[in-house]
Design a protein that fits this description.
By secondary structure, the protein is an alpha+beta fold. It folds into 2 domains: about 5-160, 2-Layer Sandwich (Nucleotidyltransferase, domain 5), CATH 3.30.420; about 170-230, no CATH class. It is about 40% helix and about 20% strand. Strands 1, 2, 3, 4, 5, 6 and 7 form a 7-stranded mixed beta sheet that branches. A hairpin with a 5-residue loop joins strand 4 (about 35-40) and strand 5 (about 45-55). Helix 1 (about 60-70) packs parallel to helix 3 (about 90-100). The longest helix is centred in the C-terminal third of the chain and has 18 residues, at about 175-195.
């Protein structure tokens, strides 16, 4: 089970998205789970904040939102927080926090299964890592320690296929354009030196542009055409 919330914010003219979510992590006690609260910037895929608690509450969610806004130096009226309709996301404490921070609350559409592709992908990556524990987490400290290592790896070392194989942290810092331009140059040079090895154009190393939470049909078609062209 997961709780979903997605935050969209504007930085200059660049529209960016964030999402927070918290799945249940199993413990050694039957029926007891640790709740992972996690916020991901959808534009860069960077994990910008996370906490683990033994309970699920609006207070924990609002605390994480406040910390993420401070860490990312987010100003009021820059964010739209899109969440599911769960009680932690609609609790009075959470809504009051959003109002104080100038964040507009938005809630997911009923019976829509594709509202959470980014977080589903992230947690799929997490749970299929070879280092993911075979047994339940022995303690809250154990769970926090493992997720801390995962978040560092995911942000700084994981070369994300959807980002043209740069890391989330590199894209978050705006380093992806220079890195991808350098890769493009290397590929073009290799193609010129050994043209017989290339039956078509080189790999598409153009930086990924806009990111949409729920693209309409035309945007999906354009994205598919870009993928085919690449």
């Amino acid at each position: 089970m997961t709780r979903e919330c997605h935050v969209r914010f504007c930085e200059g003219l660049a529209v960016r998205f964030r999402r927070s979510t918290h799945p249940y992590l199993p413990s050694t006690v039957v029926g007891r789970f640790f709740r992972l609260y996690l916020i991901m910037d959808i534009y860069s895929r960077k994990i910008v904040g996370w906490e683990i608690h033994e309970s699920e509450s609006a207070e924990h969610a609002s605390q994480l939102i406040r910390k993420a806004c401070l860490a990312e130096k987010v100003r009021p009226s820059q964010l739209v927080l899109h969440s599911d309709n769960g009680s932690p996301m609609k609790g009075a404490t959470m809504l009051a926090t959003l109002q104080r921070l100038g964040i507009v609350a938005s809630f997911s559409r009923p019976s829509v299964s594709n509202d959470n592709p980014y977080s589903e992908s992230l947690f799929g990556t997490m749970k299929y890592l070879p280092s993911y524990p075979d047994k339940p987490f022995a303690s809250l400290t154990h769970a926090r320690s493992w997720v801390e290592r995962f978040a560092t790896w995911y942000n700084e070392q994981h070369r994300h296929s959807a980002l043209r194989f740069v890391t989330p942290a590199q894209r978050h810092r705006g380093e992806d354009q220079a890195l991808l331009a350098q890769r493009k140059q290397v590929y073009e040079q290799a193609r010129q030196e050994k043209p017989e090895r290339w039956s078509t154009v080189t790999r598409n190393w153009s930086p990924v542009g806009e990111v949409w939470l729920n693209p309409d049909r035309q945007q999906r078609l354009e994205g598919e055409n870009l993928t085919i062209a690449a």
